[in-house]
Give the backbone structure.
Amino acid sequence: MSLTPDLLATALTFVGCALGSTTAVPPPTAASRRRETVINGKRIKTIDVHAHCIVPAAAAIIKHPLEAPDLMMQGATLATRLAAMDAQGIDVEALSINPYWYRASKDEAAELIKVQNETLVQFCAANPDRFVGFATASLQHPELAAEQVEYAVKKLGFKGVGVGGSVAGEELANPRFHPFWAKCEELGVLVFMHPLGVRELEPSGRLNGSGLLTNTIGNPLETTIALSHLIFEGTLDRFPGLKICAAHGGGFLPSYANRSDAVIRCFPDKVGPLPKKNPTAYLRDGQLFFDTIVFTPEALRHLIAETGASQIMIGTDYPFPWTHTEVELVMNTPGLTDDERIAILGGTAARLLGIQG
């Protein structure tokens, strides 16, 4: 599919994690000048690895309603998005699309992914200094998904691919998804994993009531479950070259991964085939990466203590208002060296996504 320059700015709609009736981040009220980040006299390129959009033309193929229409940015124009990025001090956004197509038939999924990836790559190519994209794939059809990733990388130029935290109720560690993981490892792409929530809990009512628990707890919980299965079911051992960035600071796993180590010591006969390393080792060995959406300098300090600064990249969840001060968060986190701040703010993302300085 081909888009004219006039259509490119409207080909994407900027939406994010569904939040019920919560309001999206409003556009800046005045013209903004791009904030620059300088460390030790050097201008730093900041890269946001967790930013959302959707391709309406692709969603229409399966008659999927646009996610939470009341949450879309009003007047979600390119200028609005760039002004918001400038105000936050974000130089580049890596755009991803939360999977909504994991129950689509093979033919529908093939058409949807083609439209989606081609639209996204054209949009990014028209704005190359500000946007890169994570390709999408129909993971419910693993062999097709592997073909889609190969085409996205070799023909369209993508450096990463996005996935959900589960696939229509199936765990990412299910062996039937091995063809997809094998292709991601072969191509060296960064996989951005964004949770879809633990919808199987919702009928029980456990997440009802106050607190928007379907999102507040449900999203990081699914990430925790997905990562734990990838470790304990041996997926990360089978594909040691995989690089996965887990949204929302990796959910709850980095804060309590020592319990996963302990279960191996305490109940080795109940764990199943033992992973090659203690679970905590997978947080640091270069396979797993995490965004900074943990909200406070102390939380980020702790995440870094568990994973190492080399595994962290900034994420904003834009356009939703979970956070829009990630640059300040990194700058205000104690104990980091200049080199560590530079890596978190953009250096690691630039390396993994092939973004030039």
